[in-house]
Amino acid sequence: MPRPLLALVALLLLVVSAWSPSGHGHAASLVTSKRFSVPGLAGREQAVALWPAAASPDRKLPVVIAFHGRAESALGPVRGYAAWIDRYALGAAYEALLAPPLSAAAFGGLVRASDLAALNDALAARPLRGVVVVGVYTPDLLVQPHERRERFATWVARTLLPSVHKAVPVASDAPRAAGVDGVSLGGMVALEVGLRFPDVFGSVGTMQPAIRGREGELAALAERARGAHRQSIRLLSSEADPLLATTRAFSEQLRRRHIGHELLVTPGGHDYAFNRGPGAIELLRFHDRALSPVSR
Question: How does pLDDT run across 225-244, given as a tens digit for each residue?
Answer without folding.
Answer: 998 888 999 999 999 999 99
